[in-house]
Amino acid sequence: MVRGKTQMKRIENPTSRQVTFSKRRNGLLKKAFELSVLCDAEVALVVFSPRGKLYEFASGSVQKTIERYRTYTKDNVSSKTVQQDIEQVKANAEDLAKKLEALEAYKRKLLGEKLEQCSIEELHSLEVKLEKSLHCIRGRKTQLLEEQVNKLKEKEMTLLKNNEDLREKCKNQPPLPMTPARPVITVEDDRPEQNVDAMDVETELYIGLPGRDPRRNKVAEVRSG
């Protein structure tokens, strides 16, 4: 009798499912035992039934085998994770380098450099983008100029208002009191003017014995005025 191929899906009949579980469990435990004996392998098998009952087999200690498994997987997972991270970082770096190179080439094209290998369509695309950029730049510039003009107008209105307020304050202030003029004191000199006219001063010097003619011994005659 030829056995039919078993379909890999859940058995819906509970009785058939329980019978199949018991048969295959026993076969699995038998195969685990044979593997540990024939190949000197460390085997640990843990099975829970649908009702939660535990079935286990171990060539040594289940706990030691589980700890060995945890250590092995932890080391391998760590090394694999580190290697995967390094490879991912390298891939990201290469990708970023390519993107940076492409951006640098595009920047040079926008500046009008390295256009020898550009096609007509690419040049037209660059021209359109530059025109859009120039339009946005001019729009922003116009907006800033309008804002500056509005600020200057507001400042002008504020200054005019302050000027008007100052004029009103000056009008409402009382006039300042008049200070009496200081008397002018004139000092007159009562002394008569002395007009010194030219005077004749006659000086005579006589040399000689007394009794002689003084006209002969007259030495000098000075007249001053």
Describe what you observe in this structure.
InterPro entries: MADS-box/MEF2_TF, MEF2-like_N, TF_Kbox, TF_MADSbox, TF_MADSbox_sf. The radius of gyration is 65 Å and the shape is elongated. With 225 residues, it is mainly alpha-helical. The chain has a two-stranded antiparallel sheet. Strands 3-4 form a two-stranded antiparallel sheet. It has a domain at 14-60: SRF-like. The chain has 3 helices and 4 strands. The model is unreliable at 194-199 and 216-225 (pLDDT under 50).
Layout of secondary structure:
Layout: H1 14-38, E1 44-48, E2 54-58, H2 62-110, H3 120-172, E3 201-206, E4 218-224
Antiparallel strand pairs: 1-2, 3-4
Q: Strand share of the residues?
A: 5-15%
- Main sheet overview: 2 strands, antiparallel
Summing up helix and strand content along with how strands pair, one would put the structural category as mainly alpha
**Span from first to last CA?**
185 Å
CATH architecture annotation of the domain at 14-60: 3-Layer(aba) Sandwich
Mean pLDDT metric? 79
CATH topology of the domain at 14-60: SRF-like
Note poorly predicted spans.
194-199, 216-225
User: Going by CATH, what is the homologous superfamily of the domain at 14-60?
Assistant: Transcription factor, MADS-box
Q: Measured on Cα atoms, how large is the radius of gyration?
A: 65 Å
Strand order of the largest sheet: 1-2
The sequence of SSEs as H and E is HEEHHEE
The gross shape turns out to be elongated
CATH secondary-structure class of the domain at 14-60: Alpha Beta
User: What percent of residues adopt helix (DSSP H or I)?
Assistant: 55-70%
Task: Please tally the helical runs, counting DSSP H or I stretches of 4 or more residues.
Answer: 3
**What is the strand tally?**
4
Pfam families: K-box (PF01486), SRF-TF (PF00319)
Domain MADS-box: 1-61
Organism: Panicum hallii var. hallii
Protein name: MADS-box domain-containing protein
